[in-house]
Amino acid sequence: MPEKDYKLVVVQGVKGGVGNTAVTANLAVALRKVGFNVLVFDFCKSNDLRLHFGMGLDRTDGLHKGLLNEEPWTNFAFEDRNRTTFFPFGHIEQVDILRLIFLSPNYLTDILDEIDFESQETIVLVDYPSYNSLKDTKCLSGYDLKINVGTCEVSSYSKFSASIKSFTESDIFMFNRYNPERKIESDIRTLISSEFDPSKVLGVIFEDEFIHQALAQNTTIVDLNEYTKSSKDFYHLAMKLSSMLFASSGE
Amino acid sequence: MNSILRVTWSAISNYPFEQLVSFLLRVRSELKKTQCSLFYKPFIVCAWLLSWALLGNKVKKYSLSVFFQQVSAKYPHVKFHRFSFTDVLRFLIQTVYLLLFFSEEQRKKRLIIQHNNTKINVFKSFVKFIRKQIIEPGRQWVVSAFSFTAESAPSEFKSKLLKIKWIRVTLTALMLGLFFWAIVVPFEPINQLIFSFILWIIALWLRSTPGRVATLVMMLLSILMSSRYIWWRITSSLNIDDGIGFILGLGLLAAEIYTWLVLVLGYMQTAWPLRRRIVQLPPNYDNWPSVDLFIPTYNEPLKVIIPTVFAAQNIDWPEDKLNVYVLDDGKRDNIKEFCEQNKISYLTRPDNSFAKAGNLNHALTKTDSEFVAIFDCDHVPVRSFLQMTMGGFIKNKNLALVQTPHHFFSPDPFERNLDVFNEEPNEGELFYGQIQDGNDLWNATFFCGSCAVLRRAPLEEVGGIAVETVTEDAHTALKLHRLGYDSSYVNLKQAAGLATESISAHIGQRIRWARGMLQIFRVDNPIFGKGLSFMQRVCYSNAMLHFFYGLPRLVFLTAPLTFLILHSYIIYAPVETIFLYVIPAIFHANLTNSRHQGKYRNTFWAELYEAVLAWYIFRPTLMALITPKKGKFNVTEKGGMIEKDYFDWGIGLPYLILIAINLLGIGFGVWRIGFGPEAEVSTVFMNIAWTVYNLMILGGVMAIITESKQVRVAHRIEYKLPMTVCSKSGFIYEAIMNDYSESGIGMEIQSDQHVQFKVGDTVTVVLRRNEIVHSFETTVKFASKNILGVKFNDESLDSLRMLIQITFSRADAWEVHPMKRDKEIISSRLLSVLKIGVRGYVSLFTYVHSYIKEHYPQLHDVGLYFLSFLPKRPRLTNN
After folding, report:
1. Does the active-site annotation cover B473?
2. Which chain A positions have a beta carbon within 8 Å of B733's beta carbon?
3. In terms of domains, do B329 and B475 share one?
4. Same domain, B324 and B411
5. Which residues of B touch A190 (CB under 8 A)?
6. How far apart are the C-alpha atoms of B594 and B684, rounded to whole Å?
7. Record: contact B734-A194, CB cut-off 8 A
8. Domains of chain A, first to last
9. Which has more confidence, A247 or B658?
10. B867 belongs to a structural domain
């Protein structure tokens, strides 16, 4: 099997509403800004990723919508101002969603195989829906790393604990929306950190109003203001992620 | 006639009277502007017109009021708005003064001086350039050449030769003989001059040569020159015929011999600081030994004990192998309650015999771990304390004691009163930075009573902590060393505590140390008795001898007065010869010490430290020397406040008397220059110079005993640490901590724009130490641009425990202390001591002044009245 030119990283919430779309978008921009070639795919039917990249609410076309309509995928590659390439999901009516299961099982890898990355270090991020809504889209396989995004809440902790047995080598974790003012959150954070291998914990992002403000301005916090705590945290995450991806490739 | 009248009339009528009137009006309004008294007005107008007439156009452009301002600026103490006769007198005195010192010529001279200064600056920068471009590279080259030869020196042949015993012995004997000969050989003055000059050059060259060998050679040179001086003093400078002079001269000589002895022993003690490395612990926790951690206390408030207890619990060590005990001799209920709440063992005993030593010994009978760690109740340990110290015990089964330095996070009285906290090395730095490290080489580390670990078995073998003397710690170590046990010193700040809060408390503490050390000297003299190696005897002897400094210091402070006032020659030799011997000795000693210990103590500062204590320490040391059994243990007070600046008259009195007689001595000296025999003038000058130096040191003492206020109970500790700040509305900022204390945090928000925090806002700060993350709700107390000062809202013990866990307990909490130190330059150090001296006199004057103002206001007013007649420096004007 020929060597892949890209690293496939899946970002998935352990449950719904933990903010993995925001994490994906910010991580993508941070990775892009530290010099990687970045491709982002939105696999969430809510089609929110595009909002982080400056795409208007009225634009509803996207990759999955196109695939259903049998249009070429190249039509749906967009670029934001940092030259991050992203593929929005596209707005699909409820009735059409079911038709997604008829797509070829490896359509993502097929698309990626068609791209010539010109041997640049490329990271492909996939914003993947949480476990609850798995049935809606294809299950991915063959990824290099999977980032399990959770919060420091009891429900997240229970999900973490329940799925820990099925975790593989390429599963890592990160906490989003950490609120230090709440005692329970710091306790759960300590609990989860102590239960898992520390090298598997990617990092922590605070519950930060700046992130919400950035989305309101149709962009990411990393892009909007590099000096905020959250931007710096995303940079740290990006650096750590890249070291995980490229150190394991063995030189 | 008519025509004359007409011409006159027409002249008058054609004259532009409007101008005259307007001119007069302007003069009038200008005069009004000046607001000066009616009496001065005509004079001012006259002076103005006169200067106009004399200087013409130069003055024309200035109006009268400006002219007046210029004049009044030259007479700053004359009140022009109200007339008084005394002001006229002041005016005249000032005029004379101005004509003498502020004439146009003087101004020009000053300009010339300024001009020359710029020339000097140019010259200076030229010298700097030469230094940087030529001398420094040359020096580097010499150094590299030197290190090359040093490396290649121990060749096979040489080392083989040195292995033969008789060659070694002969060589050593030969060298010692030569050294001794160099000390005792008498020189003609000119030869002594050449000899000193050559050694001086060598010492200067060695000073810029890195490496310890160079330091050792410098020490040898210093010993040589001081020994020559002492030998010369003994053999050829005593005046046997002059009764008083002879006795006083012997006194001075004794003080000098003492200083010489301490210098030589000090060199031996610190010749090669060991800089011990940390011994790693075995990887398996099961092999880590169990430790009892004792926190003895007597009367210290609970708030001082709490951080120590929490930090002791935070020490990273297997939980079942660390037992923290609070040993309360005060038998206080609140401390017992606190210990029970926090699961700490609390021990008391029926009596209070033998103070701290007895307290610890009692605890030894109630506990059974293999090791005992001891912390004074204000010494907050960091989490790595045991990991840094215990490795040695496992490696060396004969090791009985591991000591770590005492570090203080509050300023000691010297630092506070001189305002040099965190800027200059403090008083203890020399002992913990160098002397203990030097002792360690000779296996003679002293036990310092806190921040140390002892092995229980040897400790019980010597009968527990020593109770015979008031410095139980040093005596215990001595006993351990006598039994052949090893000691080691780990020079890592693994704990920090509170310094003594006032100079009187500091003096009390030092008196106790001195008394204790001299008790040991009498009761269990380290020079005699069995079990010690030669160098251990040297180290202990020097430690004890050190505390005799009181009397010699007083002798030096008064020695020149014997000539100036009593007119007796205590050094019976020509001034030039004295200089030829004493200057090289002093010079080499200071040069060597500034290189060897400049990092730990500023040159000349030891004199300040010793002078402050001299008077108070010499009586108890004498007492202890005569009757060693007397004297009780006094507890050093800590954690208090000083509410306002004050001058400690009680402590200052002996020094005020010393200053007075020194001033009297200078007065006598001046009189002797005027009326004494001509041959004596140079002697008088030397003695006056010495007295001035002494006065400078005494001024430093004045500066030190002027207590600056200390209102802060929770001391701020400088520490840089990234942290997170959450505003109430949910915005997250990154910040860098500047300092922390038990009650709050100072920080700088990292942001590209000003953050809108206001005083009174509630913010949450998040601190972390690796995986431990704690958040604290705080109130903003100070906000300026991005600098923020916040105070913790929650003052509960839990909150304090969390804070200590991530601040005081950090392994590097005290090691990262940034010290902005200048390079040790002897002349600038001398200057700084001079400045401190001047400062002392200024503060002395201030306090005398305010005392008189408060208690004798009439006297004060009279004084001010007479002072007002003195000429003053003119105010600066734009012109």
Report:
1. yes
2. 228-229
3. yes
4. yes
5. 771-773
6. 30
7. no
8. 6-247 (3.40.50.300)
9. B658
10. no
B69 and B113 both lie in a single domain? no
pLDDT over threshold 50, residue A250: no
**B735 vs chain A: nearest CA distance in angstroms?**
8
CATH number, domain at B721?
Answer: 2.40.10.220
Pairing of the two strands B495-496 and A122-128: unpaired
Q: How far is A201 from chain B (nearest CA, A)?
A: 11
Beta carbons of B294 and B360 less than 8 angstroms apart: yes
Q: How sure is the predictor about B859, in pLDDT bands with cuts at 50, 70 and 90?
A: confident
Nearest to B378 by CA among B854, B742, B872, B759: B742
The answer on B370 and B444 residing in a single domain is: yes
Chain A residue at shortest CA distance from B778: A181
* Residues of chain A with a CB closer than 8 angstroms to some CB in chain B: 180-181, 186, 189-190, 193-194, 198, 206-210, 225-230, 232
Taking an 8 Å cut-off on Cβ atoms, the answer to whether A228 and B733 are in contact is yes
Q: How would you classify residue B361: left for phi > 0, otherwise alpha for psi between -120 and 50, otherwise beta?
A: alpha
Contact at CB, A228 and B777, closer than 8 angstroms: no
Judgement on whether residues B143 and B9 belong to the same structural domain of the protein: no
Distance CA B339, CA B326 (A): 8
Phi-psi region of B247 (alpha: psi -120 to 50; beta: other; left: phi over 0): alpha
For the residues of B342-401, what is the DSSP string, one character each? TT-EEE--S--TTHHHHHHHHHHHH---SEEEE--TT-EE-TTHHHHHHHHHHH-TTEEE
| Mean of pLDDT values over B256-275 | 92
Please indicate, yes or no, whether residues B71 and B120 belong to a single structural domain of this protein. no
Task: For B561-631, list the strands marked E by DSSP.
Answer: none
Give the DSSP per-residue string, B245-290.
HHHHHHHHHHHHHHHHHHHHHHHHHTSS---PPPPPPPSSGGGSPP
- pLDDT tens-digit series, residues B840-851: 898 888 888 888
Question: pLDDT tens for residues B659-670?
Answer: 999 999 999 999
DSSP secondary structure letters along B463-520? TSS--SSS-HHHHHHHHHHHTT-EEEE--S--EEBPPPSSHHHHHHHHHHHHHHHHHH
Structural domain harbouring B54: 2-78
**CA pair distance B262, B544, nearest whole angstrom:** 10
Mean pLDDT of all residues in chain A? 82
Q: Which of B727, B772, B775 sits opposite A180 (nearest CB)?
A: B775
Residue in B730, B764, B771 closest to A193 by CB: B771
Mark whether B71 and B111 lie in a shared domain.
Answer: no
Residue with the two structure tokens 């130190």:
B821
- One-letter amino acid at B495 equals A
d(CA B120, CA B114): 10
Mean pLDDT of B747-760: 84
Q: Please tell me which residue in B87, B328, B329, B440 is annotated as part of the active site.
A: B329
User: Mapped to the 3 state alphabet, what secondary structure does A44-76 carry?
Assistant: CCCCCHHHHCCCCCCCCCCHHHHHHCCCCHHHH
- B466 within some domain: yes
Q: Give yes or no: B329 in active site.
A: yes
Condensed to tens digits (0 to 9), the pLDDT of residues B715-751 reads 888 888 999 999 888 888 999 999 999 899 999 998 8
Strands of B322-328's sheet in order across: B345-347, B322-328, B291-297, B371-374, B452-455, B399-403, B486-489
CA-wise closest residue to B389 among B377, B372, B376: B372
CA separation for the pair B481, B537 (Å, rounded): 10
Q: What are phi and psi of B519, to 5 degrees?
A: -60, -45
**CA-CA distance, B529 to B544, in Å (whole number)?**
16
Q: Is B160 a residue whose pLDDT tops 90?
A: no
Number of domains in chain B: 4
Q: Shortest CA distance to B524 belongs to which of B456, B586, B474?
A: B474
Question: What's the distance, Cα to Cα, between the start and end of chain B in Å?
Answer: 53
